[in-house]
Amino acid sequence: MRRPRAGAALRLPKVWLGALPPRARLAAVAMSITLAVLGGLYFFWLRDSSLVSVEHVSVSGVSGGNAHRIATRLEAAARDMTTLNVDDDALRVAVAAFPEVRGVTTEADLPHGLRIVVAERMPIGALTAGRQHVAVASDGTILPKGGTGSLPVIPVDTLPTGSRLTDPAALRAIAVLVAAPARLRARIDELAKGKGGLRATLRGGGTVVIGAPTALAAKWLAAATVMRDPSAKGARYLDVRIPRRPVAGGLPPRIDPATGERIDPTTGQPMGDSTDPLAQDTTDATGGGTTDGTDATGDTTGDGTEATGDPAADPSADGTDSQDGPFAGASP
User: Fold this and answer.
1) What is the pTM of this model?
2) Phi then psi for 55, rounded to 5 degrees?
3) What is the pLDDT of residue 280?
4) How confident is the model over 246-266, as pLDDT tens digits?
5) In Å, how far are 147, 178, 263 from 258, measured between CA atoms?
6) Which of 22, 52, 131, 315: disulfide with 196, CB 3.0–4.6 Å?
């Protein structure tokens, strides 16, 4: 294929102009000059002129202790702009010191108005060390000014000193909270490592045994499904470490009318003094499994999840029975 000669594209307009009648050719040239002048006026004068200077700024989407300071900084930065030349990067720099700000978007309202919408990082958990606590966002950002009153507690040895959470165990707990449905997450009082791995203690009583932070969507779905099941009434804990086989444990025993024995309603077997395979916790400090690749019962799992062992084994803290547990068929 023959390549066009250099400069051919530049001579093309002349060819078209030459084909036009004289008056049309004059009009086309005049229009080109007018557009060039208007473009120059826009880029070199109008877009930065006082005719479109930002005078009215509205800021929305901010909350918390730093809301006023964030809005003030955004307004101050915006007043150095025009509605035809909004610098979003400059606005983000103006509030870069506030970790709760995830981003900003703008919408100009000609000639002098500018609307700024702030996207916030919302706290999802409260890192707690002794009597000290600090809020943390879902991406691990520390929110020093975030309230922690009703957030799920995540116990840590020491509070982080930087702007982001780096403790692997705490980050895994954050991942568990992120995966939880919002309505169920609102019921979590504490998420910590315990017997059986990571465990979510619910407000009002009851525990959801999560185990390792894997297959979290399936585990929370299993928990929500069991909590809606009327047969879970009276259970003190839900074990969803194997989500396809969730267990509602700590159910009140039923009495065999023939023998008088106490029967475990989960297994249908007599309740004896069997050893609790979770009594001696063999999981590592992160709640992510055992140090030798086996589960708490000594069986190696082959599907990436940990086995629950005896479904009658109680992974709750005290092993006592409750006649009316928190899982009574209520929607999570």
Assistant:
1) 0.69
2) -120, -25
3) 35
4) 999 887 777 778 777 777 666
5) 57, 49, 12
6) 315
Contacts of residue 242, defined as CB under 8 A and 6 or more positions apart, other chains included, come to 305, 306, 307, 308
- Residue 60 pLDDT: 96
Q: To which residue do tokens 């259970």 refer?
A: 235
What is the full DSSP assignment across 18-47?
HHS-HHHHHHHHHHHHHHHHHHHHHHHTGG
Whether 77 contacts 89, CB under 8 Å: no
Would you put residue 234 in left (φ > 0), alpha (ψ -120 to 50) or beta?
left
Give the pLDDT band (50/70/90) at residue 10. Answer: very low
Closest by alpha carbon to 242, among 194, 286, 301, 187?
A: 301
What average pLDDT does the segment 195-208 reach? 94
Buried b (16+ CB within 10 A) or exposed e, 163-200: eebebebbbbbbbbbebbeeebbebbbbbbbbbbbbbb
Please report, for residues 9, 11, 14, 28, 284, the alpha-carbon distance to residue 17 in angstroms, rounded to integers and kept in the order given. 14, 10, 5, 8, 81
Place of tokens 């959470």: 165
- pLDDT at res. 45: 54
Assigned token pair, 182: 């919002």
